[in-house]
Each structure stands twice: as C-alpha cells, then as structure tokens.
Automatic annotation (TrEMBL):
Domain (ABC transporter): residue spans on this chain: 2-230
InterPro entries xref list: AAA+_ATPase (IPR003593), ABC_transporter-like_ATP-bd (IPR003439), ABC_transporter-like_CS (IPR017871), P-loop_NTPase (IPR027417)
Name of the protein in its database record: Phospholipid/cholesterol/gamma-HCH transport system ATP-binding protein
Source species of the chain: Paracoccus aminovorans
Pfam family, one: ABC_tran
Length: 242
C-alpha cells in the first residue's frame, strides 16, 4: 500500500536518508526507531510531502503521493500541537469544518473525544486548561476525526509519565485495531514499540539497518538493535551525531 524506494535526502553535505526502502501493507502498524538525529522525522516529512527527497519514490496504492493521500491521513504531532486560540472541539474538528456544518462537526468532535476518554465538558475548554496527557488525547481525537486510512504518530509518548504513556500506547493500539487504519509511528520509546508495532524498522545513519516483526526484535542478531532495545551505551564512534 505504501512503498518507499531508494529514498535519499541530504542537507548540504550531510546525507540524512540514504537509499531507504520501506513497505507497509494496508492495516499494518509500523514503528520506526533509531537514535536522535538518524532521520526519522525527515523520513516522516518526506512521506507527508513536507520535504522534497533528492532521489527515490514514495507510492501509495500504486501512485505517487498526492492530494488523495493528503485527505486520507491523520497525524498525532509531538506535543499534540493544538491551536491554543481554539477550544478543544474546534481543534478536533479542524479539518471537518471545511466540509460540513458546524453542529455536525462538533458532534463528531465530541464523539471522538469520548473515544479517547475525554468527556463532553472538555469540548469547550482551551488547550491551556488541559494536562499533558489530556492534550495528547485531544491530539489523538483530532488525528482520527476524519476517519483516516493512514495515521502517523510522531513521538506519541514524549513528555508523559510511564503510566500515562502506557495508557496512550494502549489507546493507539486499540484505535488502530478498531479502525483498521495503517499506522506509522516514530519513537525512541521501546514501550511504544512493544505496544503499537506489528513491524519495526531501525534507522541508523540514514540507512534502514533492520526491519522485522515485533516478535523477532528480541532475538535479532543485529548488535545495534540489541543495544538500542536494552538501552546499553555504545562507543561514541558508533553513536550518530544529532
Ligand atoms: N531542515 C533541515 N536543515 C538542515 N538539517 C536538517 C533539517 N532537518 C533535519 N536536519 C538534520 O537531519 C538529521 C536528522 O534529523 P531528524 O530530525 O530526522 O532526526 P530524528 O531521527 O527524528 O531525531 P530525534 O529522534 O532527535 O527527533 C539531523 O542531523 C538534523 O539536524
């Protein structure tokens, strides 16, 4: 469904993505891991069309990424990225308001808020009144508001304590299962990987170093992957500069 081939991206002399190939089937949940500065966000930005690759292709359902794809995806941004000047329901309904009457968009927003565990009383609050966990939930409600076929999760647990992180991870997995959406998550958080992934891809120095099923991850022979999973320090020469 999503096929990335030979993706290259450099900034000046720095090659950030180096011939990355990636395949994602419909309904699959892929988690991309890798150290800081290994190109995870650049890969995501290329897929979203926010960055122009130097070489390679990104196809969705057999065609280059275009407006159809832009209408079909939802995104949970790092730190939720809510608009502070809009009440929560308008944040959630942001895209819906372009295509439907206000009352209908608001009803869907309230329904999506309920799905992520936020009651109707939250709808009229402003983001400043929400805790970090509630902001994430509201961001998640916005990501699923238009029933996307593909959902991107950018560092979904950043800034959350371990219990809230586990709750958000479980919610993401439930939503992905329920909706049958294809999901791409980028994270350093191994608890997210275990909770969300069907398949894992490890980026290292711009190359896709390892990919496989989440169940194969713990027995993989790759030494960097093993250190990454265990959080073991490595000699600085082996740790890419951010
Ligand atoms: N617009 C840009 N101009 C110049 N360099 C950039 C730009 N965007 C990213 N980079 C560089 O590309 C490299 C990869 O960045 P990227 O943000 O993709 O890393 P990451 O794997 O997402 O890291 P982190 O986990 O810390 O967010 C970094 O060295 C970064 O400085």
């Amino acid at each position: 469904m999503l096929a990335v081939r030979g993706l290259c991206k450099s900034f000046g002399a720095k090659r950030v993505l180096d011939r990355v190939d990636l395949d994602l089937s419909s309904g699959e949940s892929l988690v991309v891991i890798g150290g800081s500065g290994t190109g995870k966000s650049v890969l995501l930005r290329c897929i979203l069309g926010l960055e122009v690759p130097d070489a390679g292709s990104i196809m969705w359902n057999g065609a280059p990424i275009g407006p159809g794809f832009m209408d079909a995806f939802g995104m949970l941004f790092q730190n939720a990225a809510l608009f502070d000047s809009l009440p929560v329901w308008r944040n959630v309904a942001f895209r819906l308001l372009r295509t439907m009457p206000k009352a209908q968009a608001r009803a869907i927003a309230v329904e999506k808020l309920a799905r992520v565990g936020l009651g109707p009383e939250v709808a009229d609050l402003y983001p400043a009144a929400l805790s970090g966990g509630m902001r994430k939930r509201a961001g998640l409600a916005r990501a699923i508001a238009a029933d996307p076929r593909v959902i991107f999760f950018d560092e979904p647990t950043t800034g959350l304590d371990p219990i809230r992180a586990a709750t958000i991870n479980a919610l993401i997995r439930d939503i992905v299962d329920e909706t049958g959406a294809t999901a791409i998550t980028i994270t350093h958080d191994m608890s997210s990987v275990r909770a969300i992934a069907d398949r894992v891809a490890l980026l290292d120095q711009g190359r896709l170093r390892w990919q496989g099923g989440v169940a194969e991850m713990d027995t993989a022979a790759d030494d960097y992957l093993r250190d990454f999973i265990a959080g073991r320090p490595r000699p600085m020469a082996r740790v890419p500069e951010a």
